Amino acid sequence: MKVLITSRLYPSSACPSRGTFVHNQARFLAAHCELDIVSPTPWFPRLPGLGKWSAYGRVGQCELRDGLTIRYPRYLSLPGRRLFGQAWRFYLAAVQRTLPRPPDLIHAHLAYPDGLAAAHLAHRLQVPLVISVHGHDVNEIPAANPRWRTLVAAALQRADRVLYSSTDVQRRLLELGCNPDRLDYVPQGVDCQLFRPAPARPTHRSGWRLLYVGRFDERKGIGVLLESMALLRQRRTDIALTLIGGSPVSGTGATFREQAARRGLEGCVEFLGELPWDQVPSRMAAADVLVLPSYYESFGIVLIEAMACGRPVVATRCGGPEDLVTAQTGVLVRPKDAEDLARGLAEVLATYQRFDPAAIRQYVEQRFDYRQIAAHVASVYHRLLARGANENRRVDGPACQP
User: Fold this and answer.
1) Same CATH topology for 2-189+371-387 and 208-364?
2) DSSP-assigned letter for residue 251
3) Are strands 105-109 and 74-75 parallel, antiparallel or unpaired?
4) What is the per-residue DSSP string for 93-130?
5) Distance CA 368, CA 25 (A)
6) Helix (H) or strand (E) holding 161
7) What pLDDT score does 45 carry?
């Protein structure tokens, strides 16, 4: 079974933390099928100082990652989402130009432009199409522009299967007109062999260690987290916070560093910046609590990564976390509410002994290990191929006319 995986959201040498969840699913899928991976990347000259656009210029045409070959053909994509309504055409041309061999099935990550381009390609090749959605493609893009909403809906309605990772995303798919019979719940995963508990449970002689891992972005709630730290420090001084993150898009968090300084948090808040992905597990295992204060998350991969390390979590009720966090694994709080976040953190620390590391890890192993996720996705592929031609891939008309 030859499968083409295509997504602009994929790690590279220039952007190693971008789309790691797509790559990690792919590396475990490689045990079930032959993969060709194409990640169209915006063309941009090698000019320094322009954030993510400079990073795009440093991406190679072809790279090897964990034994998988990834091709990065260039396509036209402009800042500010200019010509965004035509992006799928440029994306499709890039995939076709680079496609190493005809696939038996196409799996696109993100509904637009990836999914719509893949819908046209699947129609031309007469092969099944699977689309995985990841939140912003069915949330931010449709809300931003009615035309873009039509394009997203066109892609999803032409897919043979649409894979979603949370109840919130499922609801958004139904609002976009997806056939519920074509939806499959496939959560994001975690490599439980990589994310493991520390050999010994950390002691608290030097205080409690809170950890945030993610982009340095206001929408991730970092400003609210710093405000909650200031509130907590008014009552106790045995709490420290480490933030790991940043990206070519969000930078190194200078604004948040200034906020921490204004709040007098320099001695208890540490900004480490972006770390290689394989260094994150040990940081999570060494922490006491993982906190994710986002305004919106379609899933929340860092939550299950921390849980795989046996650590409780504090997260906001912002979409995906509601499906993940239970009374046995952590606490949920209101988004954009520093006082409620401080309350939730204080609650976890005050009742820390009730969180059983072995039980938390087992919860994740049974539901979210990448080996299980990959086997499930492969079973979706096999069912589609066994079923044969789908009614949406007729030879009497185009796949869609957005």
Assistant:
1) yes
2) B
3) unpaired
4) HHHHHH--S--SEEEEESIIIIIHHHHHHHHHHT--EE
5) 11
6) strand 161-164
7) 63
Distance CA 243, CA 230 (A): 15
Angle, helix 222-233 to helix 338-350, in steps of 10 degrees:
60
pTM attached to this predicted model:
0.90
User: Phi then psi for 309, rounded to 5 degrees?
Assistant: -85, 5
CA 46 to chain centre: 27
Spatial distance between the Cα atoms of 140 and 81, rounded to a whole number of angstroms: 13
The CA distance from 113 to 21, in Å, is 19
Cβ neighbours for 203, distance < 8 A, ≥ 6 positions apart: none
- Say if residue 11 is preceded by a cis peptide, omega within 30 of 0: no
| Sign of the dihedral through C-alpha 316, 322, 324, 329 | positive
Q: What ranges do the domains of the chain cover?
A: 2-189+371-387, 208-364
Query: Alpha-carbon torsion 201, 202, 204, 208, what sign?
Result: negative
For 75, the enclosing helix (H) or strand (E) is strand 74-75
Type and span of the H or E element at 151: helix 146-158
Q: Which of 231, 207, 205 is nearest to 337 (CA)?
A: 231
Contact between 366 and 187 under an 8 Å Cβ cutoff? The reply is: no
What tokens does 309 get?
A: 């390390």
- In this predicted structure, what is the pLDDT of residue 326? 97
Instruction: List the beta strands (DSSP E) in 7-53.
Output: 34-38, 41-42
Q: From the CA atom positions of the chain, what is the Rg in Å?
A: 22
User: Mean pLDDT of residues grouped by 10 in the chain (402 residues)?
Assistant: 96 85 96 97 68 70 94 88 92 95 97 97 97 94 95 97 96 96 96 89 72 94 96 93 77 84 92 86 96 96 97 97 97 98 97 96 97 97 83 40 46
Architecture of domain 208-364: 3-Layer(aba) Sandwich (3.40)
Pick the CATH number of 2-189+371-387 from 3.40.50.2000, 3.40.50.300, 3.40.50.410, 3.60.40.10: 3.40.50.2000
Cβ–Cβ < 8 Å for 41, 9 = no
Whether residue 4 contacts residue 36, with contact meaning beta carbons closer than 8 Å, is answered with yes
Instruction: Write down the pLDDT at residue 399.
Output: 39
By CB neighbour count within 10 A (0-12 exposed, 13-18 middle, 19+ buried), where does 166 fall?
Answer: buried
352: Cβ contacts below 8 Å, ≥ 6 apart? 288, 312
Rounded Cα–Cα distance for residues 229 and 206 (Å)? 17
